[in-house]
TrEMBL record:
Residues 1-124 form the Protein kinase domain. PROSITE patterns: PROTEIN_KINASE_DOM. GO terms for molecular function: ATP binding; protein kinase activity. Keywords: ATP-binding, Kinase, Nucleotide-binding, Transferase. This is Protein kinase domain-containing protein.
Amino acid sequence: MEKKLTEVMFQLLNTLKHLHSHGLTHLDVKPNKIYIQNCVYKIGNLGLANRIDGTISIKDGNLRYLRMELINDDHSHLDKSDMFSLGATFYELARYSPPPASRTLYQAIYQGKLALLPGFSLAF
């Protein structure tokens, strides 16, 4: 399973790299925005996409996948918000359950203070 998740992660990271290289950010990366076609994984539904350097107002989106700075109206480094959301997405895919909604557990994710995922190697 690690090998497959790693493959998917690299494909989606390349998707975000391409989007960011064009000055855009997705702002709504989560599992139901990931599509597969011919063994190629893609991030779709660009409804909240915006310019990386733009000012935005987040009215939609799932707080479980949003970077804390974005929730607090800090719109600098919007590309990092996509990376945080992708990380939360992979956390969900690896655990078969969504990221925690409680503020305490959310802060643990944000600060990188999570226990290792059961059944996965330290390298993963």
